[in-house]
């Protein structure tokens, strides 16, 4: 066991007096010189903390507003993107339809030109066939007449018939 000093357990009135004097002077010195500084520092610190809290709240509100604005901008950008895509699709569909129409027109024109060329070629061929048939007919007739009129008596009778027919007409 530790033996405790009896003076510490039962302080004397003089010790209590001097402790009160030292404590009082310490409180007085602190009150006179340091108390105002400590209070002003505490008030200043409290003001800084309130300012920081106010700024944090303003920043939070501003961030919420910026997020809302950002969401609106994203929504508008999506709408604009969808509109641009829609316009591009319509334009491409229109261009495809126009190209298809032009191709059909050109195809029809080519077909019409081909028909016209075919008709012209047919007319030329028919004309050539008629010429060839006429030439062939003349050659055949000439050969038939030569054969039939090979003797002099047949020629005389044929000429007489022609003269008789010519007078009748």
Short summary of the structure?
93% of the residues lie in helices and 0% in strands. With 169 residues, it is an all-alpha fold.
Q: What descriptive keywords fit this protein?
A:
CF(0), 169 residues, 93% helix, mainly alpha
Description:
By secondary structure, this protein is mainly α. The chain has one domain. 93% of the residues lie in helices and 0% in strands. The protein is built from 3 helices and no strands. The longest helix is centred in the middle third of the chain and has 136 residues, at 13-148. It is rod-shaped and about 195 Å long. The protein starts with 5 loop residues before the first helix and ends with a helix. The model has no long low-confidence stretch (mean pLDDT 86).
